[in-house]
Amino acid sequence: MKGVTYRIIGGDGREYGPATVDEIRTWITDGRVGSQTLVWESDDGEWLPAARRPQLRWDLPRNEAPPVVAARDAAAAVPAPIALRVAAYLFDMVAVGLMVWLVSFPWNTQLDALQKDAMETLAKTTPDLALVMRFYAMVLAFHIPVSLAYNVGFNAALGATPGKLLVGLRILRDDGTRLTFPRALVRFAAESLSLAPFGAGYLLAFFNPSRQALHDLVAGTLVVRVPTGLGAR
What we know:
With 233 residues, the chain is α+β, with helices and mostly antiparallel strands. The chain is built from ten helices and seven strands. The protein has two domains: 62 residues, Dna Ligase, domain 1; 148 residues, no CATH class. The protein starts with 5 loop residues before the first strand and ends in an 8-residue tail after the last strand.
């Protein structure tokens, strides 16, 4: 086993290593590695639960409590690439926009007229700000409920929005467990912090090793990439 190195996916969804087999055994003793912890070995290049690694199997606790995360979910806990998050965001933005258009269709004539008036008054030296605010309030009255239903509904039910599922992403809590409805709701509310000012909160994902944006840090969530062949349960 000389020269063989290992990596693990911790309970926080982050990758740790490289480490020797003796170091992994120490992590088992410390409670950092359980039977369902995903362990990568340099010899075979595969992510397998620790219980399926013969060199680790007998070091694992015999009466270990059932894991809170299944092996397939733990395997997914690799921080999502920024490019895939952007692609998913754009897809979801278009999908939400289409849904808003469908929901607001019966009022499209009134909304178009209000938008025209708002744009015209903005071009004036002294614009009617009350009119502009009324237009944006109408838009938000449709957009927020649709966006909430779309994001919270899909995230809580499937662990990701359609855009994220399309590119193989999932959302987990930062302890590696599946997203719950309350946590999905908190994440949606916290996203307003990432949007203001000027989307600065999203930029944190570029510098954070776990690729967490501001709303992920506030809600305690991770956006992870699902390896090929795995999907939402």
